[in-house]
Amino acid sequence: MSTKEKKQEDVLVLEKEDQENQIVLYNDDVNTFDHVINTLIYACDHTEEQAHQCSIIVHYKGKCTVKTGSFDDLKPRCSKLLEAGLSAEIV
Q1: Residues 6+ apart with CB under 8 A from 65
Q2: Backbone torsions φ then ψ of 44, nearest 5 degrees
Q3: Where is the Adaptor protein ClpS core domain (predicted)?
């Protein structure tokens, strides 16, 4: 294996490790804006302004990334969103 091939392999591994997971929140016809905002503040540590903006994006675009980070950090946050009746997943 040449030196050039070895360096390329190292770069590919580093890029894969740097990728973060995301919680994507989806629109529904059930939950109120207030409920979504309060849940984002509680589950994702959003400010009121962040939560309000995300709820507007979800309403008009159908989905919004509401939190990024490691899977271990996002899993309990996503569970809180789901327990509150929101539609979300980690991608």
Answers
A1: 22, 23, 24, 25
A2: -115, 5
A3: 16-83
